[in-house]
Automatic annotation (TrEMBL):
It comes from Methanococcus voltae. This is CDP-diacylglycerol--serine O-phosphatidyltransferase. One of its GO terms (molecular function) is CDP-diacylglycerol-serine O-phosphatidyltransferase activity. GO terms for biological process: phospholipid biosynthetic process. It catalyses: a CDP-1,2-diacyl-sn-glycerol + L-serine = a 1,2-diacyl-sn-glycero-3-phospho-L-serine + CMP + H(+). NCBIfam families: pssA (TIGR00473).
Length: 217
């Protein structure tokens, strides 16, 4: 037996902020909370390593929080907003949201038992950013573009879900230049303009394909 308060570390509290942000994204139907949750997801690992408090408990807590913030929250945002793009696609919104959550959970479960360098499959925070930024952009430009946006968004959710459970390799620590550009794009996304974030996530996804092909060749 152990008491929760005796094993909680500073990094665990940072992780809990992550899940609270995911909950806020759901309750307030707001993409910005998912974007900020990604920052805290990165911070908890950094804090754990800096304070030498890496633990199995922290890893399990992180996975549970990730399912909510980067699985359930993006899925709910799809369900809550798909009718704005194409009302006839409501049922498909439910189906694709469910597939995305399941793929995210499978991705995290596999990551928890594998001991490999880098990531196998698109990391769930990247999957969440990929889907949320495109859905966010679609809602912003719905008055400009055609009614096919709903189909595009659903397809993106399907692709992101499949990428999370595929065998494509992604770097665990991207180069500093990309990290700087990504950080700026994330900030711009939080401020309400997701297009730079969309471009960053597309480039990261393509980079995974390229890296896997060149590695296998």
């Amino acid at each position: 037996m152990f008491k929760i308060r005796e094993i909680l570390t500073i990094s665990d509290y940072v992780t809990l902020i992550n899940i609270v942000l995911g909950l806020m994204a759901i309750l307030l139907n707001d993409f910005a909370f998912v974007y900020v949750a990604v920052v805290f997801d990165a911070l908890d690992g950094m804090v754990a390593r800096k304070t030498n408090t890496v633990s199995d408990f922290g890893a399990e807590l992180d996975s549970i929080c990730d399912v909510v913030s980067f699985g359930v929250a993006p899925a709910y945002l799809l369900y809550a907003n798909i009718s704005t793009l194409s009302p006839e696609l409501n049922i498909w919104g439910v189906i694709l949201a469910s597939i995305f959550v399941c793929c995210g959970a499978l991705r995290l479960a596999r990551f928890g038992v594998l001991d490999v360098k880098g990531f196998i499959g698109l990391p769930i925070p990247a999957g969440a950013l990929f889907t949320c930024s495109i859905l966010h952009a679609a809602l912003l430009y719905n008055n400009v573009l055609s009614g096919t946006l709903g189909y595009i968004v659903l397809f993106v959710y399907l692709v992101a879900g499949l990428l999370m459970i595929c065998d494509i390799r992604y770097p665990k620590y991207p180069r500093r230049v990309y990290l700087s550009v990504f950080s700026l794009a994330l900030l711009i996304g939080v401020l309400g303009q997701p297009i730079p974030l969309v471009l960053c996530l597309i480039s990261y996804t393509i980079y995974g394909f390229y890296g896997t092909l060149t590695h296998e060749l």
